[in-house]
Amino acid sequence: MLERESQDVLGELKTLANIIQSSIDKIEEVLSANAFVLPSSNASFSFESEAPRMHPSIQSAGSLITSAAAQLMTLVRPAPLVVTDVMMQVNRIVPATIAHFQVTVY
Q1: How far is CA 67 from CA 12, 60, 70, 100, 105, in A?
Q2: Assign residue 44 a region: left if phi > 0, alpha if psi is -120 to 50, beta otherwise?
Q3: For the chain, what percent of residues have pLDDT higher than 70?
């Protein structure tokens, strides 16, 4: 039974890795077709340098990459760490959301 579950998880990992790779290939295709340059994470931020990331196809591929990466992390990390991360996100988001609605209601 455990061997079967392990194979299922390995299959999921491979599928997610394929989604990431095909999305990177799509980004590369769009960059080449439009003579875009994707800025390095070390580059200074400017709206002009971020323009390639605003291309609809690059945004779509980026969304797939981030979603697949989040699922990959969930599959390979121990469950208590995943739960802790979710709790930390909720602790940051919920108070800010409540504060926003309190300010907007008035």
Answers
A1: 13, 11, 5, 26, 33
A2: beta
A3: 86
